[in-house]
Write a structure and sequence with these properties.
- With 424 residues, the protein is of the alpha/beta class.
- It folds into two domains: 44 residues; 321 residues, Spore Coat Polysaccharide Biosynthesis Protein SpsA, Chain A, CATH 3.90.550.10.
- The chain is 42% helix and 10% strand.
- The strands form three sheets. Strands 3-2-1-4-8-5-9 form a seven-stranded mixed sheet. Strands 6-7 form a two-stranded antiparallel sheet. A two-stranded antiparallel sheet has the order 10-11.
- The longest helix has 44 residues.
- The relative contact order is 0.14.
- The C terminus is likely disordered.
- Bound molecules: guanosine-5'-triphosphate, 2-acetamido-2-deoxy-beta-D-glucopyranose (2 copies) and magnesium ion.
- One 2-acetamido-2-deoxy-beta-D-glucopyranose binds next to loops.
């Protein structure tokens, strides 16, 4: 009896020590496994990037004080190393889709993709615009798909319909001519309303008043990689006003007299067009670039290059500014949105190229995007692995370095392109 009682505390201490030992082993093994996993990722996933860096360094007989950094393609200085720091703090921004009720499936597909690749970490609001009221099925399904709040707005008819100063007979005559000529969407009335709305009215919608930035989304597009950052934040921090991913050539048949109108506008508005610091050269350069000559001959000084506006991230305050509105009003007065078929892509592109400083336009090199028939995908293997991309820049339809692309002209004449960051 007595012996048992003196032993009891001893047993308890042994038991506690054993428990503590087990716990320590558990923690140590977790740390060890983590390290092993880290080096496995480094070894397996970034091996190719490392090989390329080493080959480059030795073959060129160059000697760098520090080893080359693996390519990241990134414009974001904070995006270093293997982890992306996602800060849930949001910008004053909304995702924006102009869409028709019958495009619901395509809208959901685009939403699913953008939510998965970006918005599920941020929950930005979705704003839907339509020239007709959205039906209940559309509202229900898109609200369910969104991780943020949703809002639905009807475009006022005076922002959408053909203005009454457009000559009806002339309009019908031109419409038929373009249709016969086989111009893409040449014979479509609503497409013209859409292009004019996107050129001059989307930013005047009341629902967009509470926001600084918008991210345009269209039905049936896809985002092939995780977003490595919040593009809105990149825009605000770096004072960017317009962001794009793809730049291509426009069909000249849709804009025969657009450039004449632009030249007149420049002539009449010298005080708001800063020729020294804008991107005029990007839209007029027609030299050989890289190995490519322009694939389409232009009959004017405009080289037909435009940012593909079905993807765009923009500063609403720029579009709401007097100078942009003046530019739009000037073009609109020519009637070309109806007598021809001016697209919002060349209108936005020429607008931002003339009115913004070239450093205020950003090419989002890290964002992968598809809209029929083209896509863009990060060139860096390392990046594609880190961002879990589902695309291959070496397959058909990849447009960045292709005769159909104007991106090289942006690298040459715009804000430039940085391949390696110089740390020294
Ligand atoms: N509410 C509404 N939205 C429209 C109308 N026409 C086009 N849109 C939207 O405007 C955007 C551009 O139209 P699209 O038909 O995609 O034109 P596109 O991108 O030039 O051509 P494809 O996508 O190749 O057909 C999309 O978001 C459409 O949903 C319209 O009459 N009403
Ligand atoms: C967001 O942007 C709008 C439009 O520029 C502005 O009126 C509003 O004050 C901004 N809100 C915040 C919280 O900054
Ligand atoms: C162009 O930018 C430079 C450098 O920021 C500035 O000094 C110059 O005044 C700008 N040119 C015009 C016409 O504003
Ligand atoms: Mg489209």
């Amino acid at each position: 009896m007595l012996r048992n009682q003196t032993r009891r505390p001893f047993v308890v201490i042994i038991f506690l020590l054993a428990l503590f030992g087990l716990y320590l082993t558990y923690i140590l093994s977790l740390v060890l496994l983590n390290c092993l996993e880290g080096s496995r990722i480094e070894k397996d996933l970034f091996e190719r990037s490392r090989e390329v860096a080493e080959k480059y360094q030795s073959h060129r007989g160059r000697h760098f004080k520090k080893p080359l950094k693996l390519s990241s393609n990134s414009y974001d200085d904070e995006m270093n190393g293997f982890t992306f720091h996602k800060v849930p703090q949001r910008e004053n921004a909304t995702l924006l889709m102009l869409v028709r009720n019958w495009e619901l499936n395509g809208a959901l597909k685009s939403m699913r993709s953008l939510e998965d690749r970006f918005n599920r970490d941020y929950h930005y609001d979705w704003t839907f615009l339509n020239d007709e009221p959205f039906d209940d099925a559309f509202i229900e399904a898109t609200t369910a798909m969104a991780s943020g709040k949703t809002q639905y707005a009807l475009v006022p008819p005076e922002h959408w319909n053909r203005p009454n100063w457009i000559d009806e007979e002339e309009f019908e005559r031109r419409l038929q001519l373009m249709e016969e000529k086989g111009v893409l969407y040449g014979g479509t009335r609503s497409y013209r309303n859409m292009c004019r709305f996107n050129s001059g009215y989307f930013f005047r919608q009341k629902v967009l008043e509470p926001y600084d930035y918008y991210f345009r989304v269209e039905p049936d597009v896809e985002y092939y990689c995780d977003f490595p950052y919040d593009p809105f934040k990149v825009m605000r921090r770096n004072n960017k006003k317009y962001g794009f991913v793809i730049a291509i050539y426009e069909y000249e048949d849709t804009i025969p007299t657009l450039w004449d109108a632009v030249e007149e506008f420049i002539e009449d508005n010298k005080e708001i067009v800063d020729m020294e610091n804008n991107s005029y050269d990007f839209i007029t350069d027609s030299e050989v670039v890289g190995t490519f000559t322009p694939i389409v001959d232009s009959n004017s000084d405009y080289n037909l290059c435009h940012f593909w506006s079905n993807f765009e991230i923009g500063d609403l305050n720029f579009f709401r500014s007097e100078r942009y509105k003046k530019y739009f009003e000037y073009l609109d007065s020519k009637g070309g949105f109806y007598y021809e078929r001016w697209g919002d892509a060349p209108v936005h592109s020429i607008g931002v190229s003339l009115l913004l400083n070239r450093d205020e336009i950003i090419h989002f090199d890290e964002l992968a995007y598809y809209h029929n028939p083209y896509y863009t995908c990060p060139a860096s293997h390392n990046m594609r692995i880190q961002q879990r991309c589902q695309c291959n820049p070496h397959e058909d339809g990849h447009v960045d370095i292709d005769p159909n692309s104007c991106l090289m002209r942006w690298w040459k004449n715009g804000a430039g392109k940085t391949f390696l960051k110089d740390d020294q």
